[in-house]
Amino acid sequence: MDHAFTKLRPGCIEVICGCMYSGKTEELIRQIRRCEFAKQDFLTFKPEIDKRYSEDEIVSHNNESLQSIVIANAKDIYKHVQHTTRVIGIDEAQFFDSEIVEVATKLAQHGRRVIVAGLDTDWQGRPFGPMGELLAVADIIRKQYAICVQCGESATRTQRLVADDSEVLVGSFKMYEARCRDHFDPELSVRLASSKAPSKASSIHP
Ligand code: ADP
To answer: What count of Cα atoms within 13 Å lies in the side-chain half-sphere of residue 87?
Structure first.
């Protein structure tokens, strides 16, 4: 594996973060497309857990897509990185464990541009998985904002709308919406869960 890490300076870690629908995937795809124009070799990855829209593509909520490699663990990235790989994009980084911090750091130290996109907070407004650590070690941070569906202001939170208090519940439009801090209600789905039997949504819990 290490033979692939010939130093290509300068390496860096860029983190694209924000709530759902804030354009993280769109921005990741935009950055990778620019690499295509620059004729830089790139690879994009996504976690196994997220197969909402496609098995082997990163897909944004405005339906842009990009071929990607599905991996179970962050360390699987090493198996794919070649001597010529300059840029590594990772989507939905919040679903990996903290190993991704070590992997991103090592890749950057070996000259790769690592672009990581992920939800910075979860449905309860807490730091999501390894995102806090990734933000701490990042060289560049892009915070994206969605539009609050309640008031039209900038949204920074992901509101869960279904009666399910599972820690991880992969879903989209009917299950989550973007909200500003004022309209974010982290207790909503807990209240819904305690007031009725589990909804059908819980059956897609990974
Ligand atoms: P993320 O990866 O952050 O979930 P995507 O890049 O997949 O976001 O999707 C961004 C797109 O989602 C926007 O360009 C827009 O078309 C759509 N969208 C849907 N709901 C909203 C919203 N509440 N605020 C902003 N964009 C939204």
So the answer is: 20
Catalytic choice (26, 48, 57, 92): 92
Contact criterion met (CB below 8 Å) for 91 and 45? yes
Q: Give the pTM.
A: 0.89
The reply to whether 187 belongs to the active site is no
pLDDT of the chain along its 206 residues, tens only?
Answer: 454 555 556 799 999 999 999 999 999 999 999 999 999 999 999 999 876 666 788 999 988 999 999 999 999 999 999 999 999 999 999 999 999 999 999 999 999 999 999 999 999 999 999 999 999 999 999 999 999 999 999 999 999 998 887 878 887 778 999 999 999 999 998 888 887 644 444 333 33
Q: Is 102 in the pocket of ligand 1 (CB under 6 A)?
A: no
User: Do 180 and 156 contact (CB within 8 A), yes or no?
Assistant: yes
